[in-house]
């Protein structure tokens, strides 16, 4: 193996381990090589057991820690924006809704800014800021401790305040989805608020891009059968699709043209 080839593959491995998942196009831009070269490297590295190969990119073999918020903001940004736009189409003017912590729910909030007379309860400071320009929008921010690294409001007070309300929609993001449909998160502080949203929303939307099927947080939020609609950017694994059909959960897969 040449020194240049070894250096490039080490760079790929470092990026994948740092971000959890990286698209082939992003790797190609970072390395100044073609996508075909990246795919060839990833195939070989996957065969060597260094990383996991997926449609459109590569992931770490041990995605057990969450990615930094600044990295999550740009990771799969186009897909998250497309997911957010699609989910926002299902929200009528005048609706009441919970919105929780996460970069995909923030993308959803950006797409709500032309809606009118929404009533929003959130434990996410960024969501509140994004919705401030929305016409006649009513905003309630939960109590709790502000997590400065990502604008999340966490702790018992946040969940307790959510429990005081009933909303038309609960829109949640998630850090990971296990093969059996279990919804997982990295931070136990976020779980109680997400569970309260599921309990107190008449309709629950789950927003998650395909990388969430590659990550394995330890904390259990609930099960995908508890939601009413799932918005994502690629078809889920067959086992998840079977669970969605069994429990009459609507599946919305954003088309490739929406992510371009």
TrEMBL record:
Gene3D superfamilies: 4-hydroxybutyrate coenzyme like domains, Winged helix-like DNA-binding domain superfamily/Winged helix DNA-binding domain. Residues 5-60 form the HTH deoR-type domain. InterPro entries: Carb_Metab_HTH_regulators, DeoR-like_C, DeoR_HTH, NagB/RpiA_transferase-like, Tscrpt_reg_HTH_DeoR_CS, WH-like_DNA-bd_sf, WH_DNA-bd_sf. Signal peptide: none annotated. GO terms for molecular function: DNA binding; DNA-binding transcription factor activity. It holds the Pfam family DeoRC. It comes from the Bacteria. Keywords: DNA-binding, Repressor, Transcription, Transcription regulation. This is DeoR family glycerol-3-phosphate regulon repressor. It comes from Acetobacter lovaniensis.
């Amino acid at each position: 193996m040449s020194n240049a080839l070894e250096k490039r593959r080490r760079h790929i491995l470092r990026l994948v381990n740092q971000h959890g998942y990286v698209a082939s196009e992003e790797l190609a831009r970072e390395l100044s090589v073609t996508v075909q070269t990246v795919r060839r490297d990833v195939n070989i590295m996957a065969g060597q057991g260094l990383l996991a190969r997926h449609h459109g990119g590569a992931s770490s073999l041990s995605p057990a820690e969450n990615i930094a918020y600044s990295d999550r903001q740009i990771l799969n940004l186009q897909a998250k924006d497309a997911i957010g736009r699609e989910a926002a189409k299902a929200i009528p003017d005048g609706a009441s809704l919970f919105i929780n912590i996460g970069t995909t729910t923030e993308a959803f909030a950006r797409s709500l800014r032309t809606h009118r007379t929404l009533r929003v309860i959130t434990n996410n400071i960024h969501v509140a800021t994004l919705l401030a320009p929305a016409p006649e929008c009513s905003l309630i921010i939960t109590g709790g401790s502000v997590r400065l690294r990502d604008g999340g409001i966490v702790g018992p007070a946040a969940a307790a305040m959510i429990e005081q309300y009933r909303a038309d929609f609960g829109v949640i993001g998630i850090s990971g989805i296990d093969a059996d449909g279990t919804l997982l998160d990295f931070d136990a502080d976020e779980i109680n608020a997400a569970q309260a949203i599921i309990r107190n929303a008449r309709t629950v939307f789950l927003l998650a891009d395909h990388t969430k099927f590659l990550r394995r947080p330890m904390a259990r939020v609930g099960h995908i059968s508890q939601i009413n609609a799932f918005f994502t950017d690629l078809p889920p694994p067959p086992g998840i699709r079977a669970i969605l059909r069994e429990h009459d959960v609507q599946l919305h897969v954003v088309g490739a043209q929406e992510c371009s």
